[in-house]
Amino acid sequence: MKPISLSEQLLFNTVRLVATDGSSGTGFFYNFKIGDFVYPTIITNKHVVRYNPNEQMTFFLHLQSDDGETIENQQVSLDAKWVFHSKKDLCFCFVNPLFEEVLQKTGKHVFYIANDESILATDRITEELSALEELVMVGYPIGLWDEKNNFPIFRRGYTASHPAYDFNEDGIGLVDMACFPGSSGSPIYVFNEGGYRDKKGNMYLGQSRLIFLGILFAGPQYDATGNVVVTVVPTATNVQSHTPIMTNLGYYIKAKELKEFQDYIESISAQ
């Protein structure tokens, strides 16, 4: 496939991650630009890598063909070096070592499409959004994915709290969307393909919109006693003793929290 539409491009933004204990989650490609240099990374949750900055992960990747398309897949296990966010359930690793490992094994480059600050939901952008916006989350719920083509699963939903305001905690928002084990680390977008309406009622027919809103990390669940418990979206799909009941709500870390990683990369690049 050679991705053309926005939705097709999103097929190549995420990567399925599997930890050493067999638990799985979602990562996504993000390019940090520092001056004239671009630093490609994979971002996910700390709990996806089991809170281990040296966790070995298996990455499920696409390979680039000579004609620029992608028809082959490759999985690679690597002792990645994960950099942790100081407060949020976020981490990243530089992907150049991963790319070099793939090139050495296959003689081919990794095919991927990365997010960057051009679609980041800044405070100015979220203030222009309405309280109820249509969303898309891309990832691997309950570890499910298109194994043949190495494609993620799209889930649709809506904002459950206004994107311009924090939901009970700084840098956190709420979405109305089914969030299952394996969805941890999934990027969430305000996504309209082929037209949308802004909060002032203006129509933009024939125009598409993609805004990177944040990263799923947790969700409220009912336990067996009927109490609501907020817990990280698990990475394992095995049966649990307390039988949680999903509420079809999810907490996401706002994309602007990636600023800490931007600052970190700037600091080490200046050394």
Descriptive report:
The protein has 2 domains: 6-116, Trypsin-like serine proteases (Thrombin, subunit H), CATH 2.40.10.10; 117-257, Thrombin, subunit H (Beta Barrel). It is 12% helix and 39% strand. It is built from 4 helices and 18 strands. The strands form 3 sheets. Strands 1, 2, 3, 4, 5, 6, 7 and 8 form an 8-stranded antiparallel beta sheet that branches. It has a 6-stranded antiparallel β-barrel with strand order 9-10-11-18-15-12. A two-stranded antiparallel ribbon has the order 13-14. A hairpin with a 6-residue loop joins strand 6 and strand 7. The longest helix has 11 residues, at 96-106. Mean pLDDT is 91; it is low at 237-242.
Topology (SSEs and partners):
Blueprint: H1 6-10, E1 14-18, E2 24-34, E3 37-44, E4 56-63, E5 72-79, E6 83-84, E7 91-94, H2 96-106, E8 110-111, H3 123-127, E9 134-139, E10 153-159, E11 172-176, E12 187-192, E13 195-197, E14 203-205, E15 209-222, E16 228-232, E17 245-246, E18 249-254, H4 259-269
Antiparallel strand pairs: 1-2, 1-4, 2-3, 3-7, 4-5, 4-8, 6-7, 9-10, 9-12, 10-11, 11-18, 12-15, 13-14, 15-16, 15-17, 15-18
Properties at a glance:
mainly beta; Thrombin, subunit H; eight-stranded antiparallel β-sheet; 4 helices; 18 strands; about 40% strand; Peptidase_S1_PA; Peptidase_S1_PA_chymotrypsin
